[in-house]
Amino acid sequence: xxxxxxxxxxxxxxxxxxxxxxxxxxxxxxxxxxxxxxxxxxxxxxxxxxxxxxxxxxxxxxxxxxxxxxxxxxxxxxxxxxxxxxxxxxxxxxxxxxxxxxxxxxxxxxxxxxxxxxxxxxxxxxxxxxxxxxxxxxxxxxxxxxxxxxxxxxxxxxxxxxxxxxxxxxxxxxxxxxxxxxxxxxxxxxxxxxxxxxxxxxxxxxxxxxxxxxxxxxxxxxxxxxxxxxxxxxxxxxxxxxxxxxxxxxxxxxxxxxxxxxxxxxxxxxxxxxxxxxxxxxxxxxxxxxxxxxxxxxxxxxx
Amino acid sequence: xxxxxxxxxxxxxxxxxxxxxxxxxxxxxxxxxxxxxxxxxxxxxxxxxxxxxxxxxxxxxxxxxxxxxxxxxxxxxxxxxxxxxxxxxxxxxxxxxxxxxxxxxxxxxxxxxxxxxxxxxxxxxxxxxxxxxxxxxxxxxxxxxxxxxxxxxxxxxxxxxxxxxxxxxxxxxxxxxxxxxxxxxxxxxxxxxxxxxxxxxxxxxxxxxxxxxxxxxxxxxxxxxxxxxxxxxxxxxxxxxxxxxxxxxxxxxxxxxxxxxxxxxxxxxxxxxxxxx
Lengths: 303, 277
Prior knowledge:
heterodimer, A: alpha/beta, six-stranded mixed sheet, four-stranded antiparallel sheet, 28% strand, B: mainly alpha
C-alpha cells in the first residue's frame, strides 16, 4: 500500500531522513517510533507531498507521492502533530469546512464521533476549546473521512486517559474496516496495543522494523545452570542467548513452551524465571542509555 | 466538487479577513462621503474667491491632484483619492492577504490542515488570490459608493457619475493588485508572516516616498525616480478629468501584479512546506 525506496531528505548539510526503504501493507497498523528529530514527521510529510525528496521515491497505492500528490492525499486522512485548528470557526464550522474539502460526505459521521464519542460541544468557537478538545475535534474529522489510509501523528498527546482509550478503539475499528493506519507516537504502551508492526527511527535512519505479533510470542527465560561455561539450545527449541554471565543465561524464546521445559529438565537447572519483554526494551536498544551513540556505525535495515 | 472546494477556501479566506475588510470598507465609505462634503465646501469658497477677484490657492491643489488638476468639482474630489489614508487602507488589505496566503498560513499551521487534503497547491493559492481580489473590489466599491451617495446627500453642483468613478476605481484596484502581487511573492518563499509583511510594507513605503520626492517643486531634476514608484501610475484626477492614461496605467499595474502572482504560484508549487514553526 505504501512503499518508499531510498527516500532521503536533506536540508543543506543536515540530513532529516536517510535512505528510507519501507513497505506498509494494506490494512496494517504501522507504528513509527523515535524521539523528536528522528525523521518520523519528515517521512509523513514526504508521503503527503508537503516536502520534496532529495533522493529516492515514495508511493501510495502505486501513486507517486511527489508527482501525484493530490491523488495520494485523496486516499489519506492526516492528523498533524502540531494542531492549530481555525480559532474563528465553531466546532461544527470546522468539521463542515474540512469535510467540504473532500466533497462533504463525511460531515454526519464526523459530527457523530465528535458529539457522541468525544463529547464535544460543536456550537462553541474553536478558540474556546482546550488543547485536548482541539485534538478530539481533529480526531473526529480524521476518523470520519472515507479514506484508505489514516496517518496519525501523536494522536493522543493532549488527551486524558479515557479519551486515549477511545482513540485506540477507533484505531482498532479503522483496522477492522480495512483501513491502513500509520501511528506515530511516543507512548510505547499505546503503540504496542494497536500496531501490527513498528519501525524504530533514529536521527533520520530506520533502525529496526519489528513485527509485534511475533514479539508477543516472545518470552524471556532467565536460567541458572549448575556450573556451566557454555550453553547451547537445540535449534528446534527456537531459542537464542541474549546474555551469559557466569551461571546465568538470559535467553529469548519464541517456540512452544513444553519442549523447552522438557529440555531444561534434562539440563538439571538450578532456577528459572519466565517473563515477557515489552516494546520499551526494544526501543531502549536504540534510544536507551546504553544505545550506540554513533548511528552511522549501525548497519541500516536490509544491509 | 472542485468548485465547491474552491468556494469553501475563498469563503474561509473572507471569513479570516472579515474584520479588516469590514472596518476598512466602512472607513473608505465614510471618508469618501466626507471628501464629497469637503469638496462641496471648497467649491463654495472657490466661487466666493472668484466673485471677490481673489486667486485660488493653486499650488496646494496642484500638489495634491497632479498635472491634470484643475478647479472643477470633480478634480477636487478626486484629489482626495490620493489621500494617504485611502492608499494605506488598500495597502493594509493587499499586504495582509499577501502575507497570510503562504507565510502566515504556514506559520499558524493551518496550511497543513488544508494541504493534507486533496487540494492542489495551485487551487489553494488561487483561492487566496481570489479572496484578495474580491476584498479589493469591495474596498474600491465602498469608496465609489461613498462618493455617489455623498454627492446625492450633499448636493454637489456637478457630481461625478458612478460610471466615471469606475475609472479611478479601476486604477486604485490595479494598484492594490500589484501591492498584493509583490507581497505574495515574498510570502510564497517564506515560512513566517513578519518578514513578507516587513518587505511588503517597506516596498510600498519606498514607492510612496519616491512619489512625494518627485512631486517636490525643488527637486525637479529627480523626476526620473518616479519611474520606480507604482504610485506614478495612480492618478485619479487624470482618470476623471482627462481619462487618457488611466487605462494604460491600470493595465500596467494589473499586468505586473498578475506576473508577480504567476511567479508566486511557480515558486509555491515547488517549495517544501515545513512543519509550523
